[in-house]
Amino acid sequence: MNPEEAHHTVTGGLKFFNKIWGSKALLNSLYNVEDPRLETKVFGLTFKNPVGLAAGFDKNAEFIEDMARLGFGFIEIGTVTPKPQPGNDKPRMFRLVDDAALINRMGFNNKGADVAAGKLKFLKEKNGVLIGGNIGKNKVTPNEEAVNDYIYCFNSLFDYVDYFVVNVSSPNTPGLRDLQEKEPLMKILNTLQELNTKKSNPKPILLKIAPDLTFTQLDDIVEIVMETKIAGVIATNTTIAREGLQSHRMLVQEPGGVSGKPLTRRSTEVIQYLADKSNRAFPIIGVGGIHSAADAIEKLNAGASLVQVYTGFIYEGPGLVADICKGILKERSK
How confident is the model at residue 125 (pLDDT cuts 50, 70, 90)? Predict the structure, then answer.
């Protein structure tokens, strides 16, 4: 099945299943690992466990109640933009089965910040799961006006999310990664921080970065985080690199960002570098190529405080979250 169609089929099936009597208890018994030793306190929030669902899976906050029953400690919605946009032309997602990877060039397809806020406003049951809001700019918005898009999304979602993620690292919106340069990034983060400090209950703001940054650029990221005093970093987004891929040449050449196992090593390198360079001065959420408990533990040992899954969740199935939580408990009991 086409990967994008498969996504809609599975999420629609899960939503239907969750309406059946007894389904909640069944999913909780299969996939929820409840243990106070998994509690993780980061940037002023308490996560029931350190395993989250990365942005991109639930772009419009439509499946939080459903996914919350699969054991996640937190769920990140988005990427959300101010105005609805259809994203890039289809097909725009490809499975690299031989590499346990995906290529996507979705292009921030979403229904807009107001729709996401409306969904979040009427959530009935989150199962103790915290919610992150991943925000970006519309494709048609020029980079010099991008800050206004981030302001709009920040204000729209503020009352309904527990933390924010500024996404300037997707490779699928033309020119977006230019915003990772120091001057435009400082402008966006300082503006959001200024708005944030005026609130009675400021929310943590994180920055999501690309795995393709050089070590010099990562040095800049450390400086930016320290100067703007944002809460932390998510490392990393998808990669535009193609080295070492084993899948069919025609598939590998598809434009877009690669996620999954080919990203495992590089994302861990970025986490380790940021943690060492900053002397662990700020929290890092590790994401990229987590397909097992060992992968997650490796990222936590490298300096991550929390981890997120997406492609690994697609390939390994819903039991991955419980496996990671059990692996963490086993590691901590040594």
Answer: confident
Q: Is 310 annotated as a binding residue?
A: yes
Hunting for tokens 């040992």 — which residue is that? 301
Instruction: Give the tokens for residue 102.
Output: 């995906």
Q: Torsions phi, psi of 180, nearest 5?
A: -80, -15
Active site residues: 170
Give the H/E segment covering residue 194: helix 182-197
CA distances from 215 to 269, 271, 301 (A): 10, 12, 20
Q: How far apart are the C-alpha atoms of 252 and 63, rounded to whole Å? A: 30
Q: What is the fold of 3-332? A: TIM Barrel (3.20.20)
Across 249-325, the runs of DSSP E, i.e. the strands, are 257-260, 284-287, 306-309
Average pLDDT over residues 146-160: 98
Beta bridge partners of 258: 103, 239
State yes or no: 17 annotated in a binding site.
no
How many helices, marked H, and strands, marked E, lie in the chain? Answer: 12, 13
> Is 250 within any annotated ligand binding site?
no
CA distance 310 to 211: 16
How far are the Cα atoms of 101, 116, 153, 205 from residue 150, in angstroms, in the given order? 30, 15, 5, 12
Q: What pTM does this model have?
A: 0.97
**Full strand arrangement of the beta sheet holding 257-260:** 93-96, 101-104, 257-260
Structure tokens at 298: 């490796």
- Residue 238 in marked binding region: yes
How confident is the model at residue 124, as a pLDDT? 82
Q: Which of 161, 169, 156 is nearest to 84 (CA)?
A: 156
Residues in the chain: 334
Distance CA 304, CA 302 (A): 6
- The span from the CA of 217 to the CA of 182, in Å, is 9
Asked whether residue 334 carries a pLDDT value surpassing 90, the answer given is: no
- What distance lies between CA 240 and its chain's CA centroid? 17
